[in-house]
């Protein structure tokens, strides 16, 4: 509201420019999606552009969570409006474990094949103080048809530390960085 008030006080010309920029960004995101480019504005990875790839070894995936994880991530604003079945944007995450790997979930974070991944310790509350339930501690063997995803880029990432293994049928595409920058 404060931002809108500032635009209004600035006059109709600036208001039109601001709304035009927002509309252009929205249209730009839609056009980029058609051409296989994904714009990442989340904190799970560097901000920037990511390109769809047919390389099955690409370690970044775009997927739509389902069930309670779709509801929780959408209702809490972890995901904004988009093209998933629940009306929110897909998540963009690095695959950290694939079939045959051993994952150990603990209060220290996610360890894959004995290597603890940086910044993957689950947090009890999100940045607004809402309770988060982590995936149960224990040792898991990644089964066919699933992967584990986690961001070591941001300790607050909503990923397998809360959702556990991700069914590969939820993967919409594999991605590679095209142009990114650090915040």
Straight-line distance between termini: 26 Å
Counting helices, strands and paired strands, the structural category is: alpha+beta
- In total, the number of domains comes to 1
Indicate the radius of gyration in whole angstroms.
18 Å
CATH secondary-structure class: Mainly Beta
CATH fold description: Umud Fragment, subunit A
Strand segment count: 11
Tell me the strand percentage band: 25-35%
Task: Summarize the structure in words.
The protein has helices spanning 2-10, 12-34, 67-75, 160-163; strands at 37-40, 47-53, 60-63, 91-97, 102-106, 109-112, 115-116, 138-141, 146-149, 166-167, 171-181. The protein is α+β, with helices and mostly antiparallel strands and 183 residues long. The strands form 2 sheets. It has a 7-stranded antiparallel beta sheet with strand order 1-2-11-3-4-9-10. A 4-stranded antiparallel beta sheet has the order 7-6-5-8, with no helix packed on it. Helix 1 packs across helix 2 (12-34). The protein is globular.
